[in-house]
Write a structure and sequence with these properties.
DNA-binding, 254 residues, homodimer, 2 domains, Jelly Rolls, five-stranded antiparallel sheet, alpha+beta, Arc Repressor Mutant, subunit A
DNA sequence: CGCCGACTTGACACCAATCAAGATAAGTGG
DNA sequence: CCACTTATCTTGATTGGTGTCAAGTCGGCG
């Protein structure tokens, strides 16, 4: 960044239009989006202590930084924005959570960041104290959770590399390649990627400004790497070249 | 960053002058630097499977990215640099590890980054397979490790905020405040902080250049926040103002 | 004592933040 | 369903922070 980003103020996301519904996870479901790391038995154990939350729309607060932390969250469907606010009102988006992702990191009993839905979402919620007891009873389940935490740490480290090394166009390319991996948002046949977040969400995630994100899109489009269908929908024309761009090869791009 | 940082090449750290000694952790020791999170009994269990490594000097490789991962590491004494290299030779320092810190994050059986000693160091080493078995037998120990991982994730998130929101002078201020917390490196009476790393180490950690770090030191010194005794030793004249600077208050600083 | 690397400072170029204005899309109410 | 309002997105012009190159200084080690 060149100039201080202090003083920016952004709308916090409109207020919820509909209160979230909640009900027991064993009704109807019983299957968690953790099939890749947990056995069916483990999923059943977890589902026993879970509650399902239904957020009917984007822009709804799930929890806010500073609140007492009583739950860990798991996304079944939808996308959630995890962010942190500076005292001056500027914002850092720490990550976007997709189906199968866990969130709700706490420190000394309080949430250290804010979670809001970007789309309508279905989310599982686990009471921390009951989860803790379950993990002590099921060491294998706990080990799987530890693995998941390690992956989350690795993801954060990759973001550090993006912010520390790459300039704006490459940051956006990296972000697009990340989004590409999420099924349901990328149609590989039509090469169509759907973005559930706004330009300023992307900007605050990449440590830049919404205007710079727009300019980066323009640059990628001019070089034939993608084509904007609408602001939140892009056709990826050359994913290979996008990937190489992130890795630093062939960076002849203004 | 303003200009592409591609193409920078830096020395990788000189080769080890002396091969590291290693011996069983139960000889003499039996106490791990994890007293704050582990019970004495748990420390003993861990020490049973540990090996002690002695690195006589800084600049020694502990492991390199891509190598098969067989161990988790715990620092007893000394400082270690964790870094990641881009194909073009530029480098991102992901963090500095201090006494009590765990490192050795792997992905699919391989280390994803490189660890080198910055000072002489004493380091415990745990074989992953035996550690895994121990964690399954001791769920409470595992839960403590999970907590430690959560702290590490939180630290990475703070670094994301630093890189995404702060400009160079504030990044350095933030870094100095981090270093200040480590006993043995900050003498609170003399207000003297000892830095075990070079300017380019700091630069690669903060996503900037060694020159900019030097300029940031100059700026902080000009404003009376600190005084350079030597390049690696600074007197912190006004820690409160340093802290406020990081938080974004009173940023009338060129 | 002398060499060499690490650190500092200056000059310059360039990327990106900011301010401003217009275009597009989305949401609202008649 | 359409007109209107409003937020979001894009583009241009300008300015400021910082990366890069270059030269000089300091400090440490042999």
């Amino acid at each position: 960044m060149a100039v201080s980003s202090a003083g920016r103020k952004r709308p916090r996301g409109r207020l919820p239009k509909v209160i979230a519904r909640e009900f027991c996870a064993m009704e109807g479901h019983g299957r968690l989006p953790l099939g890749n790391i947990l056995s069916p038995a483990e999923q059943t154990e977890l589902a026993k202590i879970a509650t399902v939350l239904e957020y009917q729309t984007g822009g709804m607060a799930i929890f806010s930084e500073g609140e007492d932390a009583h739950f860990l969250y798991l996304i079944d469907d939808g996308v959630v924005r995890i962010s942190w606010h500076l005292p001056d009102g500027s914002r850092q988006v720490l990550g976007f959570m997709w189906p199968g992702d866990l969130f709700g990191l706490a420190e000394e009993g309080r949430y250290v960041n804010t979670a809001e839905s970007l789309t309508s979402a279905t989310i599982f919620r686990f009471p921390l104290e009951r989860l803790r007891r379950l993990l002590l009873q099921e060491p294998m389940l706990q080990l799987h959770l530890l693995t998941k935490a390690a992956h989350e740490l690795r993801r954060a480290q990759r973001q550090i590399i993006v912010l520390g090394q790459l300039q704006n166009v490459k940051r956006l390319a990296s972000f697009i390649m990340d989004c590409r991996q999420h099924v349901g948002f990328f149609d590989s046949r039509a090469r169509l990627l759907r973005l559930p977040m706004s330009r300023s969400d992307i900007a605050d995630y990449l440590g830049t400004s919404a205007e710079s994100v727009a300019r980066a899109f323009t640059a990628l489009e001019r070089d034939g790497l993608l084509r904007r269908i609408s602001p939140r929908s892009v056709e990826l024309l050359d994913s290979d070249r996008l990937a190489r761009l992130v890795r630093g090869i062939g960076d002849n791009l203004r």
